[in-house]
Design brief:
The complex is a heterodimer of chains A (268) and B (291). Chain A is mainly α. Chain A has one domain. Chain A contains twelve helices and no strands. The radius of gyration of chain A is 21 Å and the shape is globular. The mean pLDDT of chain A is 86. Chain B is mostly helical and 291 residues long. Chain B has a domain of 176 residues: Serine Threonine Protein Phosphatase 5, Tetratricopeptide repeat (Alpha Horseshoe), CATH 1.25.40.10. Chain B is 62% helix and 1% strand. Chain B has 13 helices and two strands. Chain B has a two-stranded antiparallel ribbon with strand order 1-2. In chain B, helix 3 crosses helix 5. The longest helix of chain B is centred in the C-terminal third of the chain and has 29 residues. Classes of the chains: A mainly alpha (268), B mainly alpha (291).
Chain lengths: 268, 291
């Protein structure tokens, strides 16, 4: 466990050295600038749009971090040949994989936390500057605790994407890993269509294949509750819990396969 | 080095300004193109970010409407308004203001809008499909029938359906009854717009304020026409405000509630709201006092 946390902290430090936190500044500037501009353009919908923008930016920035750092977690060590020095230490290969994964998840957690604080700060300012009558037109309060549900599920989705990127990076080149992860990210959002495939095809075999793919491929659309949260619609705690459990089990599966592949890999 | 960078930037800005001046027409034409017309296609293309894409299309819808409304008479086409609102509401089916204000944009008579109450109803029916318990959408369809289509029976039926929804205000049921009996009179119109004035949406309130000013202007015109009839000009003299100011207790040229002088027809003696007034186009309502 100590070895995993040590590797995780070093991955986090490396991401700081790689200037990953710069995206936080960009996020803050984007939100603050938008809050000033949108009031003129959106017919009173500025708080809704700031929420949409803040949640979407959290997801996009996190996606880029998860993919572009995730694909380099293992391959970079192999390219630099620092993998030999690492494996010579009293660290097992599964510990290395889990430590690398935990480090990137820590980086993502800090990013998502800071972005959430920035989003709430901008929303608090907008709520404070608007009249009570104006606020009564909003679907949900400006400073809405329900936003946490959307942020939390974005974070679980990012953890899953990180696990995917890490999985591909254990056996593939960085470029191919990025393409495959991004491809699965897109497929994962269309996954729900596969469930109802029998309604559009006559072939029973094709329908079963589609149903099988629906269960095997990650169902990423389930993590998206942004629209519901922004409009103040109910997102049951049971739904959040089940989706989180689904995400964690999928992550465990990916990490398990990653450690098996990485353990069998020959670096000579 | 810095001077060089500043020089390059200045040159780029100058070129940009010159290009915009020369190719301005081409740029305007490009703005009127809608690359994706299918809401479903847009929803799939935007993956997880459909709500944000809906916001972008909403801003485009406002700009399109505002731009065409301000444009010269030949350029007022509003042809992208419905597709933009349709895309917005497909991408975010809970975007209440896009349905409600979109319906106002669409049903507004030309040149203030495209004059398409049918599209307004289509949009609002889509809102009802997404949120069947929202009384405001039924009420808005009733309003479209009342104000723009002048079908008071259909309006009453939609107001009744609005009244049947949960959390509907209690003034909706008497409104249904009065709609069936009074129809196109100013009292009903004033009552409806006064209800709209209580809306939680600022733009709806502003629209209601304008409509109430129009009704005030119609009331004022009635009083002025009665006054004008009492002072007919002698043969050979033309009826003008100036003549009335000399020969009657009238001391200044009357203005509508926005402060724009009213027009007086020298032949018929009819008083009308000036074409320059922000209250134009004026509604056509029966002359029955509302006060």
């Amino acid at each position: 466990m100590r070895a995993i946390s040590w590797i995780a902290v070093s991955v986090f430090r490396e991401s700081v050295r790689d200037r990953v936190p710069y995206n936080l500044v960009l996020f803050a500037v984007l939100l603050i600038a938008s809050s000033f501009l949108l009031g003129q353009l959106t017919a009173g919908q500025d708080v809704k749009i700031i929420k949409d923008l803040g949640l979407a930016a959290t997801a996009v920035f996190g996606l880029f971090i998860a993919i572009f750092i995730g694909i380099g977690l293992v391959s970079k060590e192999v390219e630099r040949r620092s993998i030999y020095a690492l494996l010579a230490k009293p660290i097992s290969r599964p510990q290395l994989i889990l430590g690398k994964y935990a480090g990137l998840v820590l980086t993502l957690a800090v990013n998502v936390a800071v972005m959430t604080v920035a989003l709430y700060a901008v929303l608090a300012y907008m709520t404070w500057t608007e009249s009570a009558q104006f606020q009564s037109a909003w679907d949900a309060p400006g400073i809405d605790p329900a936003l946490f549900k959307a942020v939390f599920l974005i974070f679980v989705e990012l953890m899953l994407i990180t696990a995917l990127a890490l999985f591909f990076s254990t056996f593939s080149t960085p470029l191919l890993s990025a393409a495959l992860t991004f491809g699965l990210y897109i497929v994962g959002h269309f996954n729900a269509d596969l469930r109802n495939f029998e309604q559009v095809v006559d072939s029973r075999a094709a329908a079963w294949l589609a149903r099988g793919l629906y269960h095997v491929l990650p169902d990423l659309s389930a993590f998206d509750v942004k629209t519901e949260v922004v409009h103040g619609l109910a997102v049951p705690a049971g739904y959040v819990a089940m989706t989180t459990a689904y995400g964690l089990i999928y992550i465990a599966l990916l990490l398990l396969i990653s450690t098996v592949i990485f353990s069998r890999r020959d670096f000579k | 080095m810095v001077a060089g960078a500043v020089l390059c930037l200045a040159a780029a800005v100058s070129l940009q300004v010159a290009r915009d001046r020369i190719y301005a027409v081409r740029e305007q034409a490009a703005e009127r193109i809608l690359y994706v017309r299918s809401g479903e296609a847009a929803r799939r293309l935007t993956l997880d970010f459909d709500a944000l894409a809906a916001d972008v299309y909403w801003i485009r819808a406002i700009q399109h409407y505002g731009g065409d409304r301000r444009a010269g008479s030949g350029d007022r086409r509003y042809e992208l308004l419905f597709p933009l609102l349709d895309l917005t509401t497909t991408l975010d089916p809970y975007f209440t203001i896009a349905y409600r204000f979109g319906a106002i944009f669409l049903s507004e008579a030309y040149p203030g809008g495209p004059g398409r109450p049918d599209q307004a109803e289509r949009l609002l029916r889509k809102g009802i499909a997404a949120q069947p318990g929202k009384w405001q959408y039924y009420y808005d369809i009733g309003f479209v029938y009342y104000w723009h289509v002048r079908d008071y029976k259909a309006a009453a039926s939609w107001f009744q359906r609005a009244a049947d929804q949960p959390n509907a205000p209690n003034w909706l049921r008497p409104l249904t009854a009065s709609m069936l009996t009074t129809g196109n009179d100013r009292a009903a119109a004033r009552f409806l717009w006064e209800q709209m004035l209580q809306s939680d949406q600022e733009w709806l309130r502003r629209n209601a304020e304008r409509r109430l000013l129009q009704i005030d202007a119609l009331e004022l015109i009635d009083q002025l026409e009665a006054f004008v009839k009492r002072y007919p000009p002698p043969p050979g003299e033309q009826l003008t405000w100036e003549w009335l100011m000399r020969r009657s207790p009238l001391r200044q040229i009357p203005t509508d509630p926005t402060g724009t002088p009213l027009d007086l027809d020298p032949v018929t003696g009819h008083v009308t709201v000036s074409r320059e007034s922000p209250l134009q186009p004026m509604p056509d309502l029966d002359r029955r006092s509302t006060r």
